[in-house]
Amino acid sequence: MTVRRRKWIDSDGAQREAWVVDVQAVGKDGLLRRAQRVCPIQTRRAAEKFEHALRVELLNKDLKTPDPEEIPLFSDFADRFVETYAVTNNKLSEVKAKRKILRVHLVPEFGNLKLDAIGPPEIEVYKAKKIKAGFARKTINNHLTVLRKMLATAIEWRMAVTLPAIKWLKAPQPEFDFLTFEEANRLIECAPNEWRAMITVAVRTGLRIGELLALQWTDVDLDVGRIVVRRAVSEGIIGAPKNGRSREVALSKEAADALQNHGRRGDFVFCARNGAMLPRHATREPLRFAAKRAGLRFIGWHCLRHTFASHLIMRGAPIKAVQELLGHSTIEMTMRYTHLSPDARREAVRLLDVKEPVTLVWRTSGGAVLHFPLTGGVPRAA
In the chain, what are the domains? Predict the structure, then answer.
């Protein structure tokens, strides 16, 4: 029996975690089959029961083994996978990413192979080629994620028999750029009047650019001081926020004042002069202009999200609260934001230079009171 808590990186770079069962069983026709499934109920006991049920299904179900002659080429199934599975189950941005990965990378490598001819050796060769070509390990892992999902789908549709084992590359954690407290204040002060509210809200709430563009006045409650993130825009299409869940973000006084003073032109909070939703490309130059006026390096909108998270952590906010404010599905995603600025590290080390004595008082079981000077020295009785 194989029941385990599995972690993996999805195609968006987000870390996932779930109870997964991995079962092998010999069917009535004498063929060894393997099934890997995510447990529908995420507890260990439920996963163990699910594993047993899946094993019984493999043993008893009369599964049709694909005829070797009917197993399609990778290139043929790639089109069907995108148009049938991806378009139905993924966001538009994810569909575009899968199409590009398949068209540019996977189909040129595996296109002439049948699905059952793709095994660990072929996958390792692919990894080696991409590393030699200079691709980042995380990028290659994204390719492998699409490959694995496509092959797993082929097995579910009974167009392949086995799912090859894939070894993920160890990728370093990406470095995140964020503004110091003083830099963030300077950026807001130097922002053009028309864009100051949007930049202020981005720095003080951590909303993604797609969430800012889709934000409507019905999502803002200035009396209570909160924003409810219900939607996001991607590729010009409004849908659910990332991870498919809405969330509530409290407004700081600065963010609330910025929204209070922001002119209302239509349903969207940050919109064009005619009230229409802003296109994403229209937001790049104003932020670049504000950063230049503030004497800062070039930054993108996601840097402001990093800034929000980093400032909360540096001010001592609980990591769980930061996770909920950012809308992360796992705490591991939020842990990436717990880096401190060099100034904060320096201040932490300076605590070692404090010369004032700090004494710990301890009462023994016999009733005696001892004083332990933490800056050095021998314990002494009271």
Answer: 3-60 (no CATH), 75-156 (1.10.150.130), 181-339 (1.10.443.10)
